């Protein structure tokens, strides 16, 4: 079973290393929970993929307890709201799901129109979650870091490389000294090692968190560079090395990924960074546009002449 390593043991302590914070909260609270509370805890840890989609009423019915017991249980393990508990449970489940597990819950056999509406509705929910949970002051602090007169290395791997490339590419349009690196490319270690001590590294990490990004986070920490981690969950293992963090939470568990919240966050960061450049921004972008023109990089109607009829 997928979550065997996280099962609670009725008698004795759980010794499984690297427990998720939610599971750790439940196991740490077991001794002081009521008997019905312990039933809830055991059910959640043994059946997280079912519990994550349940309302308080559905969870109460599954465990044959009252809704009030569910509310007291959530409060007893340290959550102010059921939605906060459910978000942590969602992050736990998302981190552990394999591709085959995701296929089981994706309902890809649904009619195309229904699947389209569901996809759009879920992304709207994810954006609302981003809007409600991300702190503007924290985002401004990260922009302060990105605005330093220092080299910035932007790193991603697998799915997150798409977002890392997007962040790095757009940043090159508003400031200089940006380098986009692949976590899977071992020469990334070289670039980080020879980078100036005041460098800023941005690691973009999305579930299911490639080990190579964890190793690079550890390297950046050892080198003493400022590390910004942009991720989609508080469960991201790269966060332990971060000096600054931005977490673009999603409400739903994606089949293959949900780039909408993170791309929206990146847009804000780059727009805010651009707003701080002043006249330097115009000079920087004029230089780029001149190079595009001279090297015929982008399609331009002014350079095109109508084809001569034969």
Describe the protein's architecture and organization.
This protein has 14 helices and 5 strands. The chain has 310 residues and is α/β, with parallel strands linked by helices. The chain has 2 domains: 4-99, Arc Repressor Mutant, subunit A, CATH 1.10.10.10; 133-294, Glucose-6-phosphate isomerase like protein, domain 1 (Rossmann fold), CATH 3.40.50. Strands 2-1-3-4-5 form a 5-stranded parallel β-sheet, sandwiched between helices. β1 (152-156), α10 and β2 (178-182) form a beta-alpha-beta unit. The longest helix has 22 residues, at 112-133. The radius of gyration is 23 Å and the shape is elongated. The termini are far apart.
CATH class of the largest domain, named Alpha Beta
The CATH H-level superfamily of the largest domain is Glucose-6-phosphate isomerase like protein, domain 1
Number of domains: 2
Sequence of strands across the biggest β-sheet: 2-1-3-4-5
Would you tell me which CATH topology of the largest domain applies?
Rossmann fold
How helical, in percent, are the residues? 40-55%
Domain HTH rpiR-type: 20-96
GO biological process, one term: carbohydrate derivative metabolic process
Protein name: RpiR family transcriptional regulator
InterPro entries: Homeodomain-like_sf, HTH_RpiR, RpiR-like, SIS_dom, SIS_dom_sf, WH-like_DNA-bd_sf
């Amino acid at each position: 079973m997928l979550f065997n390593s996280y099962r609670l043991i009725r008698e004795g302590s759980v010794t499984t290393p690297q427990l998720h914070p939610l599971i750790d909260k439940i196991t740490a609270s077991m001794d002081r929970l009521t008997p019905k509370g312990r039933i809830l805890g055991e059910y959640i840890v043994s059946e997280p993929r079912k519990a994550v989609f349940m309302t308080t009423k559905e969870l109460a019915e599954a465990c044959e307890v009252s809704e009030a017991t569910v509310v007291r249980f959530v409060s007893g393990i340290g959550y102010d709201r059921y939605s906060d508990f459910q978000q942590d449970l969602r992050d736990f489940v998302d981190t552990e799901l394999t591709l085959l597990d995701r296929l089981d819950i994706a309902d890809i056999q649904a009619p195309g129109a229904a699947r389209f509406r569901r996809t759009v509705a879920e992304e709207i929910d994810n954006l609302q979650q981003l809007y409600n949970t991300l702190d503007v002051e924290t985002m401004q602090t990260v922009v302060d870091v990105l605005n330093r007169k220092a080299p910035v290395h932007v790193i991603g791997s697998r799915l997150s490389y798409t977002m890392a490339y997007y962040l790095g590419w757009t940043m090159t349009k508003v400031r200089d000294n940006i380098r986009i690196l692949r976590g899977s490319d071992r020469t990334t270690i070289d670039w980080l090692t020879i980078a100036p001590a005041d460098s800023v590294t941005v690691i973009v990490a999305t579930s299911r968190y490639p080990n190579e990004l964890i190793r690079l986070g550890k390297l950046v920490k050892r080198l003493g560079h400022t590390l910004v981690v942009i991720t989609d969950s508080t469960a991201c293992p790269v966060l332990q090395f971060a000096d600054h963090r931005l977490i673009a939470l999603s409400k739903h568990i994606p089949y293959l990924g949900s780039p909408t919240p993170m791309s929206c966050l990146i847009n804000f960061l780059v727009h805010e960074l651009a707003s701080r450049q002043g006249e330097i921004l115009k000079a920087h972008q004029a230089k780029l546009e001149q190079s595009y023109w001279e090297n015929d990089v982008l399609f331009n109607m002014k350079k095109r002449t109508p084809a001569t009829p034969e």
